Structures are given as structure tokens and as C-alpha cells.
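no rush on this but wanted to send it before i forget. theres a chain ive been looking at and ive put its sequence and its fold in C-alpha cell form underneath. please have a look and point out which stretches look like helix strand or loop to you. thanks a lot i owe you, the record is right below:
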Amino acid sequence: MSDDMTLVREFAATQSEPAFAALVERHLGLVHSAALRQVGDAHLAEEITQAVFIILARKAAALGPKTVLSAWLYRTTRYAAADALKARRRRQAREQEAHMQSTLNEPDTEIFPRSNATEADWAQLAPLLDDALNELGETDRTALVLRFFENKTAREIATVLRMEEGTAQKRVARALEKLRVRFVKRGVTLTATVIAGAVAANSVQAAPVELTVKVTAALAKGTMIPGTITALLKGTMKTMTWLKFKFAAGVGVAALLVGGAATIVLSGEKSDGYPASASSPFQLRLVLDAASTDSDTMTFSLSNRASGKVFQETVHLQKKSLLDQSAIRSASVSTNAFIGQPTDIVVDFTLTPNGKKQFAKITRENIGRRLAIMVDGNIVSAPVIRSEISGGQGQISGNFTEEEAKNLAVKISQPVEK
């Protein structure tokens, strides 16, 4: 049986209908189940599923050989579902205004098919699963998708992720534990074993039979795509383009994935013992896995931009600050304007030569760990470090007003009192 990317390359080169049909058959359940969980509407989930596979067809030639297709489809479904929910909210608001109705919301209908063995557990997990998965790092999320959405063995996961089988087993176990911790923060206290069983049994359900026909028919030449799906396509692809553009914007600037209420995109590189002052209004501190004598416990607001939901997260921070504002040479206010997105007011800053070296060392030695960004003793964000960052420039955004951004720029430009 051909692997996913062989089929993708075959379709991209020859527009092979059998190759694409095989991909649809293989992944339809995953995409439809994820869409249904996130939007709670069977009809809308079908439209999202069709949009995701049309996007796959359009982007097939651009997908690299190392792409893990199931993870790519899951992520694209996430974008499409968020766009669909946003469009639905806008539509409901317009209808509310037009018809002068007090409310258009009706009680949610139970639509999640469940295994009898884990029905109560799945009832708790299903509404939270995709938000929790979205907060994990890309490799952790991919490992869980492969293991519990596609029921891959450790050996198969190791092959896909290009690592040793033992390492793949540990990766899945660690990712599952991180997922469990995120559920605990949302009030669901199930063991990792129970979570694994419930997700494996229920996360991917068979899609409606007729949906396969709709998806493949949508790609046939001369087929007219419904306006609602066309709008989904445009919105989702615009989001994907914007995210790619945002990641690439600024030569030499790497991105830290957002984990909290604000975004921080930093660039930095080594230096030993860069002592951060407790009086500094700007600090970077590592997030630890558990409380210890060397940690402080703090709570901050965690927002998910895709769903608009806000949660309180409690984290354990290493007491020692790894970097403070004495590493910042200058800071100023500017604006970011990305295609299809509102303009952000941001604070740009440049690190000192020593700060640049130190930040590269911090990011190089802590890839995969979370780093808390603190301003005035409060956690602004706690993103995951994706790679070594060595550019020496950065940007902080967090829904600032212009006055707030100016005050922050002045504050972090001032010398630290030692």
C-alpha cells in the first residue's frame, strides 16, 4: 500500500483520481470527526471536511516530503473550523440585528458517538480535546494524532517522525502526560490511561458514506462548489498564508508558538551566567514540570485565539530569571498589519550583543520547553521554544493600546536597578 506522501506526489504530478480517492478514504474519518467535535454541527462539519480536502488538492504540489499528512490535515481542519465558527458568529449577529431577535442560540444537541466503555469519560474530554491538543508542540501533537487518531504502532510513529522506536514511545508518553495536565487545568481529572483509551476509541468515527462522494465530486472538472464552501476555502487558505507569512516575516527571526494571552516573537544566541534582576520589569523564566523548592507558582489567563475561550492556567516557574531587561538595548512602538488580520500595536526591541548570545543559549538548551515572559511580575505568555533563536531582535504583541505599548517600550528600555 502506498504511503500518504507517495499518493500526494502522484496526485500532484498527474491529477490521479484513484490516488486522491485513496487519501480521502484513508483520512476522511479523522477530518470529519475533528470538524464535528469543534463545530458541533453535522452539516457544517461536512462543509469543513470538503473544504479541507479541496485545500489538500490545491496545495498537494507544495507539501514537502517530510509532511505528516494526518497531522497536516488535522491542523488544516482546525483552521477551517475556526473560520467557520467565526463566519457563523458574524452571520448570527447579522440575523439578530435584521430580525430584532433577543437570541438565536439553542441548546446544543448531543452528537458525539461514543464507545460504551468510555462514554462518561469521552463526554468530559470531547469538548476540550482539540483546544488542549492545539496547545501542545507540533511534534507532541503529531505523535498523539498518529498514535490515537490513526492507531499507529511505536515503530510506525518512529518511522514517520524519524527517530528511534524507544524515543517515539517516550515522546507519546510525555505528550500524553502533557495532554492530561491540560485537561486537569480544565477541571477533568482522568488518568493518562483513561484519556488514551477514550481518545483512541472515540476521536475518529466513520464519516457519512455520502460524504466521500461529495468530497471527490467537488474536485471533478466543471463542478460548481457551493458558496459556503468557497467562503471557507478563501478564509482558511488566507489564515494559512497569514500564519506562514507571520512566521517568515523578518529575516532571521524565529517564532515562539503562542501559549498565553500575548504573542512574543524573539530573536537572540550564548553567554554564561547572565544574572537577571528581581527588580526588572521584563524577565524570561523557564516553566517547570512540577513544583519544587526552586520554583514559584503563578496563575495567569490562557486564551485560545481560534476558539476565543479563556482559561486560567497555573504554572511553576524557575525562580532564577534567565534574561531581564538589561539584555535589551532599545525598544520602540510600531504596528503589524498582516493580510486578513487586524492591525496589532507591538513593541519592537533589539538585544545587546551579550543579550543576543545569552538568548540563543537559552533557546538552544531548552527546545521543547516553555518559557514564561513576564512584565511587572505578571506572566504575559508562556510559549514553547521551537528552535534556537539567534537574530538579536524581537517583538512583543498583546492587544496593546498605543499608550500601553509606549509605556512598555519606555519601561523595558530603562536601566535595571541592581
Residues 4-244 form one domain.
